[in-house]
Specification:
about 300 residues; mainly beta; Neuraminidase; 5-stranded mixed beta sheet; globular
């Protein structure tokens, strides 16, 4: 699963949003029809980005190398994508205009170093947050706004800097009072979601900014969490760790948290929630292998 390494620390926290104390997440696996997504011949597959036209993610080959992939609804064929000169490529940011992007690594001597990128009209643009050697691009909208995370070595390797990038211009996004902020999702209105950290190397807590207002959206009882996607309805998806340290996907909608785990999953996350209710993500199956999935709401 494509998530940052996190320490599991037991903490007590009450999640309150807009004055409403939220109930424990309710399970909703039965509300979806799940389809497993595996890149042909891969040893592990992740689905990270989704539009009604395209899915995208990454896969691991037999040698342990990571490659980007996308699947177009019109052709129904998988296509591999690798940034030229990179030894690691992951696709996550796609929009309805056919633009896409993600992360690549091109320095084997320093494997932690990475760059964000976008491809617009077949032109690849590298995105490096100022001063950062570890920039991650996650999602983008149809307006060309890209969200991601930068990490600056001189500021500490674990401190995240959330940003919105558009046409070469970075705009910082900082959750008030947080040690660090990371951005993972953006909708067409420019609302964003992601996570905060309390301290260097600390736990992550899911957050969102809607109409300029920041709030945490961490499922009650969670040890830590991260929101990966926000749609135009204000629904947020992501993952959280429960009190036992087990990882679950979640959906937040109108003050209600719903736990969503594909059948037979040992750990799961929901990378994107679309306006039509379709969700995509990945899970570790009973076979110990990472599988992508698409979940279609049952009507």
């Amino acid at each position: 699963m494509n998530r940052p390494t996190r320490r599991i620390i037991l903490s007590l926290s009450a999640v309150v949003l807009a004055g409403l104390t939220l109930a424990a997440p309710r399970p909703a696996t039965a509300q979806y029809a799940f389809t497993r997504i595996d890149f042909p011949g891969a040893t592990g597959t992740e689905v990270i980005g989704y539009t009604t036209q395209t899915m995208a993610g990454d896969f691991a080959d037999a040698d342990g190398n990571t490659h980007g992939w996308f699947l177009c609804a019109t052709s129904e064929k998988f296509h591999q994508f690798d940034v030229p000169g990179a030894w690691f490529t992951s696709l996550s940011a796609i929009n309805h205009r056919g633009h896409f992007g993600g992360v690549y690594r091109d320095d084997p001597a320093h494997p932690a170093r990475r760059h964000g990128f976008v491809v617009v009209n077949d032109v690849l643009t590298t995105i490096d947050y100022p001063g950062s050697t570890r920039t991650t691009v996650v999602h983008m909208n149809d307006r060309g706004q890209v969200v991601g995370i930068g990490r600056i070595p001189s500021e500490g390797a674990t401190k995240p800097y959330g940003f919105v990038w558009r046409n070469g211009v970075f705009t910082d996004v900082n959750f008030p009072g947080a040690f660090g902020t990371g951005l993972d999702g953006i909708n067409e209105r420019g609302d964003v979601c992601g996570f905060t950290t309390d301290e260097a190397g600390g736990l992550t807590h899911a957050m969102m900014r809607v109409n300029g207002v920041f709030s945490h959206v961490e499922p009650p009882g969670a040890l830590d969490s991260l929101s990966l996607s926000i749609n135009d309805l204000g629904q947020v998806s992501g993952w959280y760790d429960d009190a036992s340290g087990n990882t679950h996907g979640f959906l937040y909608s109108k003050g209600v948290f719903t736990t969503i785990d594909p059948p037979d999953s040992l750990a799961s996350e929901i990378s994107t929630v679309a306006n039509n209710g379709i969700i995509v993500g990945d899970y570790i199956g009973a076979d110990g292998v990472d599988h992508g999935f698409i979940g279609t709401p049952k009507r």
